[in-house]
Amino acid sequence: MAELSTIARPYAEALFASARDDQAGLASWSDLVSELAQVAGQHDVREALSDPRLNAAQRIELFTGLIKSPLPASARNFIELLVSNNRILVLPQIAEQFEILKNQHEGTAAARIVSAFPLSDEQLQQLVAGLERKFGLKLKPVVTIDPDLIGGVRVAVGDQVLDASVQAQLARMRDTLAA
Question: What membrane topology does this protein have (predicted)?
Fold first, then answer.
């Protein structure tokens, strides 16, 4: 079976092309796609949508009934397309791909920052400013805390990872000494 990201990519690209030309704007579409993905990612919803006793129309009504935001006609058409192609459960991966396309279009990227300790606003601003110079992109930081790092930070921007944690330094020292 194909990777889910491979299946999701054409849907995300088509949705992005449509959303880019929509007067509602990319930000509102991003929020809507995120909500759709959250609903589709729920275990109970996945089970219900996989029920063979439901026909396509029932699946569409079930899914759209769970969405709190108002659905424009184009979003409803997209949901109908996903249901008819048995791809509604791929929505979380479609949302990821959509967000990547949106970030590329805006010249931004998500920076996943894992820190051993909570960062002050000033420390975060300094870190993000340095990372923006390094990557040449406007970064949107997402910070999580992991005490196992002992100290320092680990940053992931796209597929690039900068690991300046004490844990990584100790692992490098261990590997050097073992060699």
Answer: Peripheral membrane protein
Model pTM?
0.78
pLDDT at site 2: 65
Q: Hey, what CATH topology would domain 4-103 get? A: Peroxidase; domain 1 (1.10.520)
DSSP string, 161-173: EEE--HHHHHHHH
Domain with CATH 1.10.520.20 in the chain: 4-103
Cβ-Cβ contacts under 8 Å for 1 (sequence gap 6 or more): none
Helices (H), 69-178: 73-84, 91-106, 121-135, 166-178
Residues 67 and 32: their CA atoms lie apart, in Å, by 9
**149, 63, 159: which is closest to 111 by C-alpha?**
159
- What integer pLDDT is reported at residue 158 of this predicted model? 84
The angle at the Cα of 42, spanning 3 to 50, to the nearest 5 degrees, equals: 65
- Sign for the pseudo-dihedral over CA of 33, 36, 40, 43: positive
Inter-residue contact 49 to 63 (CB < 8 Å): yes
> Looking at domain 107-178, which of 3.30.43, 3.30.750, 2.60.40, 3.40.30 is its CATH number?
3.40.30
The residues with which 145 forms a beta bridge, in sequence order, are 115
